[in-house]
Amino acid sequence: MRLLERVRKEWFMVGIVVAIGAAKLEPSVGVNGGPLKPEITVSYIAVATIFFNSGLSLKTEELTSALVHLKLHLFIQVFTLAFFPTTIWLFLQLLSVTSINEWLLKGLQTVGCMPPPVSSAVILTKAVGGNEAAAIFNSAFGSFLGIVVTPVLLLLFLGSSSSVPFTSIFSQLFMTVVVPLVIGQIVRRYIKDWLERKKPPFGVVSSSVLLMIIYTTFCDTFSNPNIDLDKFSLILILFIIVSIQLSFMLLTFVFSTRNNSGFTPADTVAIIFCSTHKSLTLGVRAACGSQKKPLDLLELELQSCKPPDVGTGH
């Protein structure tokens, strides 16, 4: 009985293992163009569902107060789009003298230049009682910033110029993030009493959608026939990514919990997830403009190495 209770309590972690296992057994189901059509169901419907769900569950006053928390937004965006990529670049200067696969190192720098994740940071923040409204704003705002900032960072750190499909990325973000969030807030105004009385499982819905995103991500990874990397490089880069992730999470925790920081514990949770997780789904489209084949390979490899974004980078 204790085991069963533990499984119920940790159902999301169990779900991640099951999702990865299912993707390994039959990856063709969740690849682009496969039966699940993730290019539509994940890229549009899943993300829109998450933000509609957030708009429905969040009190309007919480969302409004989060919008004017400028210090928090500045901390997250500067850490994500300035400190993170610069620190990675300095670290990779040391790793460049090792025998680690060159493209894995370039891929690590590419990940470092990406904006915050669109969906997973919101879900993880909500799951542990953090400032969901702040996570929503910074995920959306950071993704819009990434349309412009990410190509500049890639040019600066990798020397790769790229053409960015600005209109298509902007419209995708607007239609899958902003519009569902606004619709959710509008619907909430009419069924507010019912929501407060029934208390629907919003967290379970968002977490279930994230499991679908994780599943399709690993389907793409396991179905890729072009991955041909030595095990030493792959294991070492896996260790490096986990170490960087944990180090940056600890760093943001320390900075955001200082006595004079002005951040609440809920703010700290949002800062940790939004500042240290990266989105590949939107950002890599800019990166692929100049180095299509290597970065496609690295996108699949590095998505499988991250914790569920891990920020599944979606």
UniProtKB/TrEMBL annotation:
Q: What is its main location?
A: membrane
The listed locations are: Cell membrane; Endoplasmic reticulum membrane
Q: Which InterPro entries match?
A: Na+/solute_symporter_sf, Put_Na-Bile_cotransptr
- Keywords assigned by UniProt, alphabetized: Cell membrane, Endoplasmic reticulum, Ion transport, Membrane, Sodium, Sodium transport, Symport, Transmembrane, Transmembrane helix, Transport
Gene3D superfamilies linked to this entry: 1.20.1530.20
Q: Does the keyword Cell inner membrane apply?
A: no
> Per the UniProt record, which residue ranges are transmembrane?
12-29, 41-58, 70-91, 103-124, 136-157, 169-188, 200-218, 233-255
Q: Tell me the Pfam families matching this sequence.
A: SBF_like (PF13593)
- Does the record bear Ion transport in its keywords? yes
**Which family is this protein grouped under?**
Belongs to the bile acid:sodium symporter (BASS) (TC 2.A.28) family.
Q: What does this protein do?
A: Does not show transport activity towards bile acids or steroid sulfates.
What is this protein's name?
Sodium/bile acid cotransporter
What's the source species' lineage?
Answer: Eukaryota, Metazoa, Chordata, Craniata, Vertebrata
**Gene field:** Slc10a7
